């Protein structure tokens, strides 16, 4: 039986358990007229039965599927003769690759070594046995859970409490997965970054002004040691992000003020979703727009006034990135402005303030913490952008403050260093993790500052 079919049958068994548990709850009180004697609703008894029928079975199913291939592979290798790979002239990795291809049907069995054919036949045999055993075990666990819970159903059983307790534990498990995933990401980055800093001094990385991570194959070649001064990357990231925020913050904030305070309802109803559509446009589309439209337009404008503009420039990338970030600033600012109580506006009008004075002196001051937090989150979004910079700003690690020249950013270099086959014992590859650690710390700091500003200066209104 295939795994997908078994999954469907386990879902059907859980539905059957729900029906049986609900019917059992009604039966123990003598029918529908005695439902009031139950501690919980009949559906709660059915849900409790379905959970204890399906949950253990699905846990066994998931663990079995995740471990099955590894266990079968080890059993097959253990059953092979000690000299099997030596006779065929294959290494263990090559044999396992041929074995998987034969089992999957990608390679005919007569095109591999005899030992591999024997191993493939044994693998298929064990796989059939494992699938049969999985079916028997999962159904046995599910039916056992169904019978145990069904036998315990009685009027005073607190089925709702038990059901809600299981849901609470499920929610806790989901939260734990998110937290543990974050911890795992951080630890993996820190571990690899530590290996990099054991090879390259941290002072050279943080304060060096020459970035050339290419490593030569032979020690006698020029540049064999590489250069890992990341200051040009930090400068390029800050320059492009600064240009983007110059574009995004005024336009986003002013559009939010207009939509929240001045625009008629019909205009707001149409313009706000249209503006937020920009947030759903893939970044590669913005990159195409920068390359085909903004970049050439800047070159033409620069030639008209006698300024040399590079084909790939920080200005082009920053302008397009700012357009991309406008919905973030606008939407968050709009939410903060509309959250200001109408009573504050009415009080300002009663004191003789005009609409513009009310917006400047009352509404924006009350919404300022949320607006600042939104801007900081938008900066984090700008710092982490990659595709627009790759296509519009280039890959050159130039240490310059001129927005008309080509620059690169931290995220672009991370992608560049990890493209293709890499060895994770080389400073070139490990440098990507050091850059990732810096990027993580910067974005974390910005998010912490945003939360601090929002919490410290948030006004509480009745």
Kindly summarize this structure in a few lines.
By secondary structure, the chain is mostly helical. The protein has 16 helices and 2 strands.
Task: Describe the protein's topology.
Elements: H1 3-28, H2 42-79, H3 84-88, H4 92-104, H5 114-152, H6 159-199, H7 202-207, E1 211-212, E2 227-228, H8 231-262, H9 265-276, H10 283-305, H11 314-338, H12 342-350, H13 355-383, H14 387-392, H15 410-417, H16 427-457
Antiparallel strand pairs: 1-2
Percent range for β-strand residues: under 5%
* Order of H and E elements: HHHHHHHEEHHHHHHHHH
CATH homology superfamily name of the largest domain: MetI-like
Q: Examine the coordinates and then state which fold CATH places here, giving the name of the CATH topology of the largest domain.
A: MetI-like fold
Query: How many helical stretches?
Result: 16
Sheet with most strands: 2 strands, antiparallel
- The number of strands is 2
Count of all domains: 2
Overall mean pLDDT score? Answer: 82
Rg, nearest Å: 32 Å
| Shape, per Cα inertia axes | flat
What is the rounded distance between the termini? 62 Å
Strand arrangement, largest sheet? 1-2
Reading off the top of the CATH hierarchy, the class of the largest domain is best stated as Mainly Alpha
Q: Which structural category fits the helices and strands?
A: mainly alpha
Instruction: Pick out the low-confidence regions.
Output: none
Describe the structure.
By secondary structure, the chain is an all-alpha fold. The chain has two domains: 155 residues, no CATH class; 231 residues, MetI-like (MetI-like fold), CATH 1.10.3720. Helix content is 74%, strand content 1%. It has 16 helices and two strands. A two-stranded antiparallel ribbon has the order 1-2. It is flat and about 80 Å long.
